Amino acid sequence: MDDDDWLAGRFEASRPRLRAMAYRMLGSLSDAEDTVQDAWLHAARADPGAVDNLEGWLTTIVARVCLDRLRSRKSRREEPLDAEEPLAAEKTMVAGPEQEAALADSVGLALLVVLDMLTPAERVAFVLHDTFGLPFGEIAAITGRSPAAARQLASRARRRVRGTTPVSGTRLARQREVAEAFLAASRGGDLGALLAVLDPEVVLQADAASVPTGVPMTIRGATAVARGARASSGRSRYSAVALVNGTPGIVMAARGRLILVLAFTIGGGKISRIDVIADPARLEELDLAVLDG
Fold first, then answer.
1. In the 3-class helix/strand/coil scheme, how is 139-186 assigned residue by residue?
2. Domain termination site, one of 53, 75, 97
3. Which residues in the chain land under pLDDT 70?
4. How far apart are CA 26 and CA 289, in angstroms?
5. For residue 249, which of 159, 201, 186, 196 has the smallest C-alpha distance?
6. In whole angstroms, what is the distance from residue 222 CA to residue 185 CA?
7. Which CATH number fits the domain that encloses residue 67?
8. What are phi and psi for residue 108, nearest 5 degrees?
9. Does the residue 120 lie in any domain?
10. Which domain holds residue 235?
11. Tell me, what's the pLDDT at 36?
């Protein structure tokens, strides 16, 4: 076996791990696949005989490509995907929508959403250390920081993922049950189950970015809100329960990109207010975190 065949075989053996790492950094399976392919093109041009740790070398290549992609994404200030058109956007993807949704479920869609709120260096440091166990010395070389600075990057990211708003455990558990029941009922198009978690006088207030022109931005009453939620059930596979400013709510994303948030006001086991937020500036201001367990 010549060197090229040996390297190709080793790379293919590492491909699942490299793809999983890239997916967590980028939130898109098609972007992850492209990144791994770019890494292979880079590796194929190099001399593997001069590499002491092949796995570490491949990890570094993929991580640097991911970091460049994330920085480019931030510098272009890409707008989130249209909340009404995630299916259309998926038609250009290498992976099918079911494969993408299944992978998001396995990683945690809420985690991908929160990771997307981080700076590129924070996201890379968090994924490499907290998920794949890389030491900070290696992360420092990838991010161009000192080991101490790399540790701080991961620490800041961890605080964002866990949230900064203190919440009562018992109260949080009850609110989470309500939010999860709302999402499950929306996915199933179950009008009765939706009505069961909505206060009869519930108010839904949407921002201008979340509704088409001519559609009411304010909806009042459980029946009207439940019907609207049932009509939007097709988007639920892109949705997950997360902490929104300290209260369980719903985040909606496609390819790891935040599209829309439903911020709930919950009291007495019922949702009394829903704020629908899609304006990019407002989304950036939200304190989003992942619910444990």
1. HHHHHCCCHHHHHHHHHHHHHHHHCCCCCCHHHHHHHHHHHHHHHHHH
2. 75
3. 1-3, 48, 75-106, 164-168, 293
4. 18
5. 186
6. 14
7. 1.10.1740
8. 110, 105
9. no
10. 169-289
11. 96
